């Protein structure tokens, strides 16, 4: 699984080594089954449509990443936390903060960070949302203001994030501000995608352990993990954990 994430050996040694790993299966009201991987109880990755996708916890620990990072404003991030996808007009495309726009590939993984409104300098957030690019870099220029740029799958305020044990959550400092990197190196399109997972899920499903709530299905087809409070069920795939050394 670590190989599928394309994490450097240095980062892997810090993030994954000597951790107890377990799997859980999230069954959504849109009939999707998503497998999340917990390391010492912290969700660090999840499997979505054959792609291994990092959570905000993993992104907060990486010393470097080949995943494009798009910037938006704090007020827009609040809407993303509320269930919106990242719309085209809300992507900062000009100047150094727009450096990754030219490397986007349709259906590739992308993260989103926020800066204060109209800020020309200062600090930004860590990556607070992860999603799938809705269009390629060449389509960005021709896209209309009503088009979606990133289909958001996961944020720092969704139910997947809430799986993190409370006593560990603060150590990741997800809401800390960091210095804006104005020297963004454009990422080669060949480096953007996480490798597709190749292992088949042979684990058995155990009985339902919780009914999270009874609400209407999510309005956003792709917004699966943000709406885990609308899941049909939440069940454990594998009770046998393993240890990474």
TrEMBL record:
Keywords for the protein's UniProt record, in alphabetical order: Initiation factor, Protein biosynthesis
Pfam families reported for this sequence: PUA_elF2D
Gene Ontology annotations of biological process type: formation of translation preinitiation complex
UniProt GO molecular function: translation initiation factor activity
Gene3D superfamilies, A to Z: 3.10.400.20
Sequence ranges assigned to domain Eukaryotic translation initiation factor 2D-like PUA RNA-binding in this UniProt record: 67-159
InterPro entries listed in its UniProt record: EIF2D, PUA-like_sf, PUA_eIF2d-like
CDD domains to which the protein is assigned, alphabetical: PUA_eIF2d-like
Name this protein carries in UniProt: Eukaryotic translation initiation factor 2d
């Amino acid at each position: 699984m670590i190989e599928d994430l394309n994490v450097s050996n240095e980062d892997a040694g810090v993030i994954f080594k000597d951790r107890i790993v377990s799997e859980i299966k999230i069954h959504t009201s849109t009939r999707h089954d998503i497998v999340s991987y917990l390391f010492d109880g912290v969700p660090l990755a999840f499997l979505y449509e054959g792609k291994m996708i990092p959570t905000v916890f993993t992104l907060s620990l990486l010393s470097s990443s080949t995943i494009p990072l798009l910037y938006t404003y704090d007020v827009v991030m609040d809407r993303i936390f509320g269930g919106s996808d990242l719309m085209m007009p809300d992507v900062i495309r000009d100047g150094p903060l727009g450096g990754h726009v030219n490397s986007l590939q349709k259906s590739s993984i992308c993260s989103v960070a926020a800066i204060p409104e109209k800020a020309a300098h200062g600090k930004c957030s860590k990556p607070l949302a992860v999603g799938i690019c809705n269009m390629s870099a060449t389509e960005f220029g021709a896209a209309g203001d009503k088009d979606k740029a990133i289909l958001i799958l996961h944020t720092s305020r969704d139910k997947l994030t809430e799986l993190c044990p409370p006593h560990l959550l603060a150590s990741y400092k997800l809401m800390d501000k960091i210095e804006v990197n104005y020297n963004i190196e454009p990422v080669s399109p060949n480096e953007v995608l996480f490798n597709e997972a190749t292992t088949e899920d042979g684990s058995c499903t155990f009985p339902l352990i919780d009914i999270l709530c009874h609400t209407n299905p999510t309005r956003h087809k792709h917004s699966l993990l943000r709406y885990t409070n609308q899941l049909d069920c939440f069940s454990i795939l594998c009770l046998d954990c393993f240890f990474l050394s």
